[in-house]
Design a protein that fits this description.
- By secondary structure, this protein is α+β, with helices and mostly antiparallel strands.
- It folds into three domains: about 150 residues, Glutamine synthetase, N-terminal domain (Ubiquitin-like (UB roll), Roll), CATH 3.10.20; about 400 residues, Creatine Kinase, Chain A, domain 2, CATH 3.30.590; about 130 residues, Four Helix Bundle (Hemerythrin (Met), subunit A) (Up-down Bundle), CATH 1.20.120.1560.
- It is built from 23 helices and 20 strands.
- Helix 9 crosses helix 10 and helix 11 packs across helix 15.
- The longest helix has about 55 residues.
- The radius of gyration is 28 Å and the shape is globular.
- Bound molecules: adenosine-5'-diphosphate and magnesium ion.
- The site of magnesium ion (MG) has 3 residues, from loops.
């Protein structure tokens, strides 16, 4: 049955349309005004709203409501309360107050806070984010909220994003006035997050402790066929996948998510879903929701959706291309080059602000995509390198050269002067794409490709917004005195020229996967932080702290807390992986290999007694025996290294130990075990192989 999209779209969302239909005009207007002005709702309006939302939610089958938030764990959190209240004469009535809508107090002492909130002192509370819509799912009304401590410090991923959006709007509105945009009152950052994921059969998943406990395979020899034929990318969909994707789309549409594109990705069993872009706050909520729905729908099909950045060694991992731009309330996309000379100049100025920002804060961009999982991806030959650079394409590069040389920009047919002529429009199609670049201009937006597939996108977007706020405010300071004067254009060009002179090094149009780029980047002085532990300490560098404070995105405590949380999470992730390896090696792999050696030895003994030569058995048992010893030794070493790392109390040093010592031994153990897998008979190997997992659906 095919879905009637317009009919089901957003049917579980308390969106604009529903609000207009269900709220009295004055309440609706009050509500919209408070959102616009960022004011708290008055209790009367809140009570009215709550009642209307409750009635609507009950019609949609809801019995409960929950404040839905995004703590630092990396997943979303929810605690459900029913609408039930004691009525007269022992009856039950359904109640929902404005207070319950606006504020919640989950006992949240177990969420990571990086020392911001001690369990014995202030509790956290959740506060409704009315810029994101409430929705109904699985019998509950979901209220998107932010999560903060009673002393006002942030405990979640969403709040910094909202703060950065405020900052961006203020600075961009002021900046745009310089270019004659008097009517713009609000600028909003936008995001379209292309979500990559793997789908495997649940029967395979259930047999692999590593997948169950860590989301990735910690062992597994390369299959005879990987992705070398490129025959999976955009290939036709297998029936089970097609059925899964159809149901996924339908569920996403019901939740108001404009799921638009679906296709097979490069690696076997890898796929992608891309929604139509929206505002960053809504886009973040929707991406969190989409990931949850992807996992749940898969289970209904006997499948498992893997969102880990690197579920399988040797084939591509998964990322989340974070397409980012800014829109004005009068409908301009600020990264659209525009049609008039003034629009072009405005675009080029914003572009140069980004060039300067990315160059000055590339460490923060790297950081915003750092996690134990994503470390396996960045810098491998399939994802952007860990070095941040920008790709603009030849056309735009030529325009920048013209600015630098005070020259004119030539195409085959025409010569253009910046600020005098309207530039030709730049290609928006994918022919001009550089897929190896971490931050690529794609015609009317930037695509930040470093973000990991399981990451919450609030952090990278908060960061981009903050960087751009800083640069736009600097530019505004410089240019404001000349606004409306005849020398304005000259001053703009002078500024851009200076910026390009200092920051052009961040632009790289070549192959980001090549080893030459690593050397070249080093010559250019660009930072290269291969792992999470290398980049994390830079979060609190003075220059970074300064912009976060200036725009009220994080204070020093919040930033220090965040650094600590990320490092702790890194250590815990590697620890769980290492322990899982020890367990699998001890309980499954080594016993299987030893048993097979036993069998071979028994066969050799029998053959010997009969005077038959057993060349194959001899060779195989000797090799396996050596490998078993190696595996055994590796288990011993890994256990010791885990214990040593666990004993370190400084979070940075502990994370470094997990990286340098534990992870290194894990790699050794894996290479030994994978060799054993390759020479053992399938019937004697205790866990599903790569071929069985990735070619099974
Ligand atoms: P590709 O795979 O070629 O990059 P897709 O169509 O898969 O292209 O994804 C492009 C993404 O960029 C979509 O989510 C789209 O909505 C988003 N996008 C387009 N314009 C903007 C914009 N102005 N701001 C943010 N995202 C945008
Ligand atoms: Mg893309």
């Amino acid at each position: 049955m095919t879905a009637n999209i317009p009919e089901i779209f957003g049917c579980n969302v308390f969106n604009e349309e529903v609000m207009k239909a269900r709220l009295p005009k004055n309440i609706y207007n009050d509500f919209k005004r408070t959102i616009r002005q960022g004011e708290p709702l008055d209790m009367n309006t809140a009570d009215f709203l709550a009642n209307a939302i409750k009635d609507w939610a009950i019609e949609k089958g809801a019995t409960h409501y929950t404040h839905w938030f995004q703590p630092m764990t990396g997943s979303t959190a929810e605690k459900h309360d029913s609408f039930i209240s004691v009525g007269p004469n022992g009856t039950a009535i359904m109640e929902f107050s404005g207070k319950a809508l606006v504020k919640g107090e989950p006992d949240a002492s177990s969420f990571p806070s990086g020392g911001l909130r001690r369990t014995d002192s202030a509790r956290g509370y959740t506060a409704w984010d009315p810029t994101s819509y409430c929705f109904v799912k699985e019998g509950s009304l979901y209220i998107p909220t932010v999560f903060v401590s009673y002393t006002g410090e942030i405990l979640d991923k969403k709040t910094p994003l909202l703060r950065s959006m405020e900052a961006l709007s203020k600075t961009a509105v002021r900046f745009l006035k310089l270019f004659g945009n008097e009517k713009v009152t609000r600028v909003t950052s936008t995001v379209g997050a292309e979500q990559e994921y793997f789908i495997i059969d649940k029967k395979m998943f259930d047999q692999r402790e590593d997948l169950i406990l860590t989301g990735r395979t910690l062992f597994g020899a390369k299959p005879p066929k990987g992705q070398e034929l490129d025959d999976q990318y955009f290939a036709n969909l297998k029936p089970r996948i097609a059925a899964y994707m159809a149901e996924l789309d339908e569920e996403l549409w019901k939740l108001g998510i404009y799921s638009k594109t679906k296709h097979n990705e490069v690696a076997p069993a890898q796929h992608e879903m891309a929604p139509i872009f929206t505002t960053s706050n809504l886009g973040t909520d929707q991406n969190e929701l989409a990931m949850e729905v992807m996992e749940k729908v898969a289970l209904r099909h006997g499948l498992v959706c893997l969102l880990h950045e690197k579920p399988f060694e040797g084939v591509n991992g998964s990322g989340k291309h974070n397409n980012w731009s800014m829109s004005t309330d009068d409908g301009q996309n600020l990264l659209d080059p525009g049609d008039t000379p003034m629009e072009n100049l405005q675009f080029l100025t914003i572009l140069c602000a980004l060039i300067k920002g990315v160059d000055e804060y590339s460490d923060l961009m790297r950081l915003s995509a750092a996690s134990a999982g994503n470390d396996h991806r960045l810098g491998a030959d399939e994802a952007p390198p860990a070095i941040v650079s920008m790709f603009l394409g030849e056309e735009l590069d030529a325009v920048l050269s013209a600015i630098e040389e005070d020259g004119k920009y030539k195409t085959q047919t025409k010569t253009f002067e910046i600020g005098v002529n309207a530039l030709p429009s730049f290609p928006k199609d994918s022919t001009d794409r550089n897929r190896t670049s971490p931050f690529a201009f794609t015609g009317n937006r930037f695509e930040f490709r470093m973000v990991g597939s399981s990451d919450n996108i609030a952090c990278p977007n908060a960061l981009l917004n903050t960087i751009v706020s800083e640069e736009l405010s600097q530019f505004t300071e410089i240019l404001e005195p000349f606004a409306g004067t005849p020398s304005f254009e000259q001053e703009v060009k002078k500024l851009l020229k200076n910026v390009l002179k200092d920051h052009r090094r961040i632009i790289f149009n070549g192959d980001g996967y090549s080893p030459e780029w690593v050397k070249e980047a080093e010559r250019r002085g660009l930072p290269n932080y291969p792992s999470t532990v290398d980049c994390m300490p830079h979060y609190t560098d003075e220059k970074n702290l300064r912009i976060f404070r200036k725009f009220g995105v994080y204070n020093r405590n919040e930033l220090t807390a965040r650094t600590e949380i990320h490092l702790e999470k890194y250590s815990k992730t590697v620890r769980i992986e290492a322990r899982t390896m020890v367990e699998m090696a001890r309980k499954q792999l080594l016993p299987a290999a030893l048993e097979y050696v036993d069998k071979l030895c028994a066969a050799i003994a029998t053959k010997n007694s009969l005077g038959i030569v057993s060349k194959a058995e001899n060779a195989l048992s000797a090799e396996l025996n050596t490998l078993c010893d190696m595996l055994y030794n590796s288990i011993q070493r890994l256990e010791e290294r885990i214990e040593n790392a666990c004993g370190i109390s400084n979070v940075q040093q502990q994370a470094e130990a997990f990286h340098d010592s534990v992870l290194a031994e894990m790699e050794i153990m894996r290479s030994v075990a994978d060799r054993i897998e390759l020479i053992m008979p399938r019937s004697a190997w205790p866990i599903p192989t790569y071929s069985e997992i990735i070619y099974n659906v």
